[in-house]
Amino acid sequence: MVAAAAVMTVAAVTPTDVATASPPPAAVVAPGPGAAQLTSGWRIQSSATAGTSGAEISRPDYSATGWLPISEPETLMAGLVENGRYPDVFYSDRLKSVPTDQFGVNWWYRDQLTVHPKHGGRTYLIMNGVLGTADLWVNGTKVADRTQLQGAYSRFEYDITPYVHDGANAIALDVAKNAPKTYLSDSQLDWNPHAPDESTGLRFAPQLAQAGAVSLRNVHVNQQNATNLSTSDLTVKADLRNDTAAAQRASLRATITHGATRVDVTATADVPAGATRTVTLSPADHRQLHLTHPAIWWPYQLGGQPLYHLAASVRAGGQESDRYAEDFGIRTVTSDLSPVVPGKTHAASGSRRFMVNGVPLVIRGGGWSPDMFMRYSPRNIHDQLAYVKNLGLNTLRFEGNLPPDDMFAQMDRAGILAMTGWQCCDRWEDPLTKWPDALKANAANQATRVAEWLRNHPSVFTYFQGSDEAPDAAKEQIYLSAFAAADWQTPQVASAEYKSSPKLGASGAKEGPYNYVPPGYWWAQGPQTAGDDPTFTNAGSAFAYDTETSAGNTVPTQDSLNRFLTPADQAQIWDLSTTKGPGTGPNLFHVAASYGSYTKTARMGQYNTPLWNRYGPWTDMASYQKIAQMGGYEVTRAQFEAYLGRSKDPANPSPGVIYWMLNKAWPSLHWNLYNYDFDQPGVYFGALKAGEPVHIMYDYADGSVKVANLARTTQNGLTASARVIDLNGTVRDSRRVAVSGLASQDVQTVLSPKVPSETSRTYFVELTLTRNGGGTVSRNVYWLSTKPDAVDWSKTLGSGSGAVFQPDGYADLTGLQKLPAATVKATASTRRDGADAITTVTLRNTGHGSTPAVFTRADVRRGTRDGHVLGGDDQVLPISWSDNYVTLWPGESQTVTARYRASDLRGAPPVVTLTGRNLTDQTLRG
User: Fold this and answer.
1) Which end of the chain is more exposed for a tag (fewer CB within 10 A), N or C?
2) Which tens digit of pLDDT belongs to each residue from 65-79?
3) Is 437 part of the annotated catalytic residue set?
4) 548 is catalytic
């Protein structure tokens, strides 16, 4: 959304930055219609130091000497870190040392600003949420009380015309500590340790709005699109509010533009004194709002992301009184439940499916986690969304913790879908009987605000009105009434678990598992339960829409570990002499420091035990890294592949999966595809491989090979091949088949390789998809065992904590430790593409025998002129690779490319380092 009035902004603090803040300038709000974000001029101070007199602190002449300047409205911890109070606070266990008693008292937020009110006009202060509760003061007058001013997404507008002065003004907020178990607020739940201040403060900037006699509010566009997308009927709606004591004749103008398209429509309305009138501009009265051949917005893999711009203004008394602007996209989203096949469908009411512009979409995404201190940086988000697209994901799930509007705007432009909804576990999901009337009113306010805020973002394709629970009838009515009043047009779902609500019905969604499962788990069609049985939500293979799931821990690369853990911390991850064997060990601070009852996930044992039993022992961090990265790669690839491969199952389709989680609020060893520092461990590249637009994959359940097409167009002229290869390089089976026309969003089973009895216990399957005359489209290598993993389903179902293996039920991949050393020759070169650098690396296995170079990884680093690495933290991040962790047999080669900001080389030349499962480390000029 775009505010039309000029906005003074200060650059956001990048989450990884730690700097001492300089005194902020006072905000200046020029006269004229529209709203301005109050992002500059803010300072914070504890009431233990500043006192408690809002009448004094909010006076323009109050001296804020000694107060802490902040670059924008933010949480208390963000402000303290910005002012250098807790340097490197995420390193090791330093977070523990932050005293929490300082947040036991209220804190003041104060903004000094210059305002020039429009003569005869009105001035409004709009508060966009408070984490905690607050009393609001303006120029010595208390404007609002904390009994009202609370809620993460609340929106309250106060007419401060009687209190604002021409010139210097001051706003002060007396903020009490956030309490997510008491208020409808945000928290880190069990995703991350809770911030020492419990995320107290301001997450979204307040706004100062000025208007003439008539204010413009609730402006938005509804759309009715033809099934074939050939036309779109747009309806513009706006509330005209007359805050004067006399009736006003108001003229509304709306202009919609996109490229050469321009639509201008107007309407006149009489608005009584002190009243609000809704004006509707529809195609019935304005033929220009009927668009033929509109520009259609698509998720990024299916088309473009054109955006239309709406500019609205209202005139009264012969002059412009107010204005508003926002972008929107034209698209249609629908949803249903898959048909139930009696006796065969696991999900009793079917599985939740989504269609965008009539195209059934396989949702592949990750759960979003904001920075622990709720800091926000547009550049940081840009880089993370680049990772999302690099991974081939199309969706981010927001379970509460909704980010600033800029992120949704970036997602609109990037074509990444936003699955939004309320937060679980805290006050949001208490039964309505436990909500006092004030909280019910606050819920209605927040639901209205969220619906009006998100409704015209084309990336926002759904809203989940419950998370772990579904709303009861009364709570559902609060939400649905607010969304209906806001003209919400995309599907709403009752719950992220397999539950239902009275009006929205069955969710068709499930959750879990959350800890280690072997790759074959995702493909298995083992025992399942459904209906109201709670075991349904936390176990089972790829079927239904799984809204949050993964194999648990994520082991960062050594580069990343060195950035946030001491050597002693790192030893606790792998050293079995301190953990007394797999499955036990100390609670590790960066695994799960404050995750409530998730005690098992605070240790690496549950993750390390299957790695140890499947891959064999390790002796130090270096040998552990080789195993952990391979283990993370294979299980994450299998998760995304299984949900894609089963997406067309007629009885038990898997319409989507959300990896839990995409990212983390701080450096972590748990639940992330990439780390806080943009580190890319094995799980990242496993997901990247599975997210190829046209992909060939292995089905662990029946040993078949499937091909999938996530691209927009039908794929023709493809040939799939599979080789079963021994550890000693002997090809035990080789098959090749032509693939007929592969439609968009289609999956086909194309062949089934055979594994002869003489095959080594650990072996490889190499899959290749080529196009006639066009080279390789997809290549995928699996390391497998003739002794498969065996899950004890009777103990696994409903556990939610991961797979329980049968005795001696681990696959045998220990043969990988016996591989001879491989010989790889590599070349690298780098070129510029605007502000980016692109490094191309060609890997070739030049061995004369039959030894594969297994799991070979390339990294771009800052180097010296003679081709050596600089040393220290020299890894270039963020970076987007076409592929990585490559396995090649003698005579085979593969070229991979990496794109990154050239400025991140910091003036040094690029060098490329190579590591691998059975490769001696190498460094070459980039």
Assistant:
1) N
2) 999 999 999 999 999
3) no
4) yes
